[in-house]
Amino acid sequence: MIVLTAPTGNIGRRLLSLLVEEAPARGERLRVVVRDPARLPDAVRDRVEVVTGSHGDAATVERAFDGADAVFWLVPPDASVTPDEAYRGFTRPAARAFAAHGVGHVVGVSALGRGTPQAGRAGLVTASLAMDDLIAESGVSYRALANPSFYENLLEDAASIREDGVFTDTAAADRPAPMVAVADIAATAADLLLDRSWSGVDSVPVLGPQDLSPDDLARIMTEELGRPVRYRRETLDELRTTMLGYGLDAEFVEGMVAMKRAKDEGLDAGARRAPQAGRATPFAQWCAQTLAPAVLATQEAADVR
């Protein structure tokens, strides 16, 4: 029995689509934990067992992990609480349930940075790494998917790219860093969940095929979108002011700012590319398949208005 948490999110829905096709052929049953079963795709709803509720709730994970051999663990974003509450606080009931139900293997979504000088002051990343430690202490065999920033973060700038040809971040324009497509994270998770010959505790870096600077991203987006795209560097103070203006928890905002600062200081630098990086999605391919349709959709929405 494989249990998936967050099966309707960006990573989870891709993982679910992979497992619903591959798991039955290997004699594996699937169970998902979801707040609203109606959000599950019609094509898979009748092919999985559904536990309704939040996977941060003790009673829910007690039901969900009963009889589970492996669990995919993903903490949903929550900017209304502190980073520690968002990661370790949310995970504590699950860690107890892993031990109580003898779950053998857990694959979790985490971040790069362990062992670096910045790891202890990287805000949300520091909280994510502490979550990994909590899961490892439960006694399960654990693989933390150590991820850099996602290509998909750029979708938040789709309207700005369409209207002004601009995307924004806080990194130095010429600093190369790893990135990854969420589809590649899902594929790596599927491999680990289906072939559980591994044991112990370790991190698995999940990286795109090459490091890219914001200037590199701008050049590739310009080529793939057929329109000029440039990068605007935002200061950390600007980021803080914007996020506080949305009414987000002040400690969570500081966690985001600290993560961005740590990344610009090299938090993600030097990560080892695992063998699966050879099949990773190139940024240009992602632009053509995902970003371009999103930019076009914002254009169509603007035309309708």
Structure described in brief:
By secondary structure, the chain is of the alpha/beta class. Helices cover 44% and strands 16% of the residues.
How would you characterize this protein structure?
The chain has a domain at 2-151 and 180-205: Rossmann fold. The longest helix is centred in the last third of the chain and has 22 residues, at 283-304. The chain has helices at 10-22, 42-45, 58-64, 83-100, 124-136, 158-164, 182-194, 214-225, 236-245, 250-264, 283-304; strands at 2-5, 30-34, 49-52, 70-73, 105-111, 141-147, 149-150, 166-169, 179-180, 201-205, 230-233. The protein is of the alpha/beta class and 305 residues long. It is built from 11 helices and 11 strands. Strand 1, helix 1 (10-22) and strand 2 (30-34) form a beta-alpha-beta unit. The mean pLDDT is 94. The strands form 3 sheets. A 7-stranded parallel β-sheet has the order 3-2-1-4-5-6-10, sandwiched between helices. It has a two-stranded parallel ribbon with strand order 7-9.
Quick tags:
seven-stranded parallel β-sheet; 44% helix; 11 helices; single chain; alpha/beta; globular; Rossmann fold; 305 residues; two-stranded parallel sheet
**What proportion of the residues is helical, as a percent range?**
40-55%
Low-confidence stretches: none
How large, in whole angstroms, is the Cα Rg?
19 Å
- The percentage of residues in β strands lies in 15-25%
Instruction: Describe the sheet with the most strands.
Output: 7 strands, parallel
The CATH topology annotation of the domain at 2-151 and 180-205 reads as Rossmann fold
Please, what is the CATH homologous superfamily of the domain at 2-151 and 180-205? NAD(P)-binding Rossmann-like Domain
Could you give the order of the helices and strands? EHEHEHEHEHEEHEEHEHEHHH
- Largest beta sheet: what is the strand line-up? 3-2-1-4-5-6-10
Number of strands: 11
What's the CATH architecture name of the domain at 2-151 and 180-205?
Answer: 3-Layer(aba) Sandwich
Query: What is the 3D shape?
Result: globular
**Helix vs. strand class:** alpha/beta
CATH level 1 class label of the domain at 2-151 and 180-205 = Alpha Beta
Number of helices: 11
